[in-house]
Write a structure and sequence with these properties.
alpha/beta; Putative cysteine desulfurase IscS 1; 12 helices; 40% helix; iron-sulfur; metal-binding; Aspartate Aminotransferase, domain 2
Length: 379
Amino acid sequence: MEHIYLDHAATTPLHPKVLESMLPIYQKVFGNPSSIHYFGREARKLVDDARENIAKAIGAKPNEIVFTSGGTEADNTAIIGTAMAMKAKGNHIITSKIEHHAVLHTCQYLETQGFEVTYLDVDEKGRIQLDEFQQAIREDTILVTVMYGNNEVGTIQPIREMAQILEEHSALFHTDAVQAFGVKKVEVQALGVDLMSMVAHKINGPKGVGFLYVKEGTPFSPYQHGGEQERKRRAGTHNVPGIVGLEKALVLAAENRDENDSHYRRLQTIILQYLEEQHIDFSVNGDVKDCLSHILNLYFPGIKVEPFLTALDLGGVAVSSGSACTAGSVEPSHVLSAMYGKEAEQAKSSIRISFGLYNTEEQVTQAAKIIAQTVKRML
């Protein structure tokens, strides 16, 4: 039986060219980039080159890139680092109810430290309303943190418009763009953000490495202490092979972005059309048009998600009920609960399908058949 992987929003397989770029580093370059001798300088050059190429890819300066251990650390570093640096100006933070837990739980932690957080509602497509956002801004607002594209339903937020609203305010603006990089052109100047999080393993790079963009001049107080790496913004010995892999994955994603986007939209269409042809009762959660093309979240009335996921897995199809951080939990999706209400059935009967580079039309057609057969059997 072929096992079909449709959970790329959780993580992606390593691209062969990424592995190829990393292997020589593991084999030959072992020096600490902070050391001044030959072995250290050899490693440092790789880190510096990667920093420059990554900065160029997002329209930033090399000194605005801070390497991290991944997206969670990048989010934590951005939110805690700026909140602590800005607390003399105020203690109010704005976020949304559908953020990744790396953002939500960090904001909840800051509430225990005396900060006040406003959690914005979203509409039934999962989108923040700009008038509600504008009304939430206060004189003591110091930070806004809103994701670019949602990791469960794929809805894209009006980041540029929010940045324009904040232009006359001193509040900093952070966006978690982890899910967007593979399918959207992400340039920090165009978006108008002060901070942005990114991770490698969502774009066929290695796990355990990511970066945080910090706009030059942004008030920032590091919360991880140790050495003076990353211009004293993030202590810890650099993951040189990971950083090289991150750079390669980002370059590959940028080169094939439009092609990938079109491919994922074709795969979405295959599933939706097949389910309709089979007269399956379902609906799409989120905005099919203004969304990240690799994410498709479907509601099947009357289907309980946990046995549904198990049955699909036994049938050879790997999907999820939402973010990987809550996999195995019977709790309803916080994203769908925010969109439809706490007691809404969508939060208990929906699955997330997410596509990747190596999914073929034949695979997805087979997956659609298995999904349809499973729904019919469970009703």
